[in-house]
Amino acid sequence: MSPSILYNVFIRDFRKQRKRMLLTLVAILWGTMSIMLLLAFGEGLKVQFMKGTTGLGQGIVIMWGGQTSMPYKGFGKGRRIHLYEHDLEYLKKNIPAIREIAGEYIRWSVAIKYKDKVLTERINGVYPPYRFMRNMEPQSGGRMVNNIDIDKKRRVAFLGDGAKERLFGQEEAVGKTIYIQSLPFKVVGVMQHKVQMNSYQGQDEDVIIIPATTFVTIFGDPYLDNIIYTPVSLDDTKAVEKEVMRFMAAKHKFNPEDDDALSFWDVIESNRVTGTILLGIEIFLGVIGALTLLIAGVGVANIMYVSIKERTREIGVKMAMGARKIYIVVQFLLEALSITFLGGFFGMAFTYIMTETFKRIPIESSVFDLMGKPTVSMEIGLLVILILGFTGLLSGFFPALRAASVNPVDALRYE
Amino acid sequence: MIRMSRIKKVYDTGKVSFEALRGIDLDVKENEYIAIVGPSGSGKSTLMNLMGCLDTPSDGEYLLEGKRVNTLTSNQLADIRNGMIGFVFQAFNLLPYASSYENVELPLLFSGMRGKLRKNRVIEVLNKVGLGDKLANKPTELSGGEMQRVAIARALANDPKLILADEPTGNLDTRSGMEIINIFDELWQSGHTVIVITHDVNIAGRCQRIIKLKDGMIHNGNGDPEK
Lengths: 415, 227
Ligand SMILES: Nc1ncnc2c1ncn2[C@@H]1O[C@H](COP(=O)(O)OP(=O)(O)OP(=O)(O)O)[C@@H](O)[C@H]1O
Ligand SMILES: [Mg+2]
Prior knowledge:
heterodimer, A: 415 residues, alpha+beta, 2 domains, 9 strands, 56% helix, elongated, B: 227 residues, alpha/beta, 6-stranded mixed sheet, 4-stranded antiparallel sheet, 7 helices, 10 strands, 35% helix, globular, disordered C terminus, binds adenosine-5'-triphosphate, binds magnesium ion
């Protein structure tokens, strides 16, 4: 069978079936749109949620001191366990599975003054790795606390974007001087806005960050409020936690089995759980969409199947004129595939237009903030094409089979 | 050209099976002009479908141009129908949505004839049946006689040796029927083998030879023309 036969007869017959084609085309278009929109919004939601969960930090475990609940080596229970600066070096040295470790001081409700504006804000004393651990990126023109600040105990401050807003409004903050407990601090940077879905001390946008060394000098805190570390490998965070427990227990003399002595927040693990849930949601949406598309495919198959009855005579005539069976089969397969791909193409185009339009609608609302931007990714496109191909083949296969089984003698016998 | 021996055809419709042809022996030489006559249900169409390789016999042997049709594959049968046989039906069987031109083009598409050659051939055969001015007409825009002439042009497209016509004038008035028969006469004179099923004694009378079927059997054997 030469391609020219196929082309000539197929295109011609195809054109003649306009109404039927249009109807089935719309069904496929609709199916494609629903699967793509569902997936696109699912993807947007996922991206937004992932951003939101990493708002607290990426690849980190947060740990803080507690109270012993077991007696140990002559000590009674109920003893407070504190975290100290020297624990940082100690853990880093003994546990190779820790990549980076940093301490953090917190002081709530500190009086901050800029010009004649006085506010009460939260102050964190931190070390430079904090920036990467907690995803605190400075806006352009500013910077985060650095090592020289730490060494020289400089009085510099890095502001959360919310805190900056309250203190400065629209005014430029970097370079200005603010007063923390009546001591002048120079603002060196402002944090870029981030979506943060979980926290242990309030939103990062509200914090004012100063070097840990400066913090201790001013406030005189004897111990850290918490320690943040990043494991080398994200796979076995529980094992690292156990190691930390073991070394801390040895140093601070508590039972390594005593879960109340130290608390851990495994952000890696909870992000993983969120990721799994989101993947679940995405698969769910995808399955619903795929089913819609498949139903559309069944519609195509059905309409074509029925149409074969009307077209038996046509098939018989073609067979009498010397059409080989394969030609009949291919024609029906091609018809189904063309409808699916044409419908799929338009469905994709519409979806693209719709998502792009949606992205450009400027809506300031936390609901939309959470929903994120619907995204038609490469993967979604490929997946939909795959499902479309499958649908097309399936919806062409049975009609084609039926067409091929037409007996020309029966088809041509007149009523 | 055609040699049939002890051909039987049994239609099996579930519980009942019906023997439409009960042992046909028939020879057709090249460039014969044959009428097949007989009462309704005698098996005329069944015989013609077998001759035209649209169907295969239940029993017996059919040689077409020396080829044993029983053993051919469905693709080989399709190619024979395409190149060697031209069908004309009582109900015309044109594709309703296609123009005269496109209907006639159909067998040429299946035989793979290309471009200009194909176009010229379509126009040539349509001229031959006197429809050179109705190329673009759909079947609904043609009279019955014209539709049948398009069908004949289509049958002639690949210049087949054998023309098989099943009551070609059955749906036509006498005048258009005569036009059709005149075309068949010409085809026979130009060397084609023509076999026509008919109820019309006038038409049968113009043929070289008449085959009478009754109850699935030939009643005048391979005998002489019967007037
Ligand atoms: N597909 C079929 N299944 C069952 N029986 C059939 C089938 N085709 C034909 N027959 C039977 O075979 C017999 C011969 O049929 P055929 O069509 O050959 O008759 P015919 O001589 O062409 O009649 P007519 O002059 O009415 O066209 C009839 O009795 C018919 O009922
Ligand atoms: Mg008949």
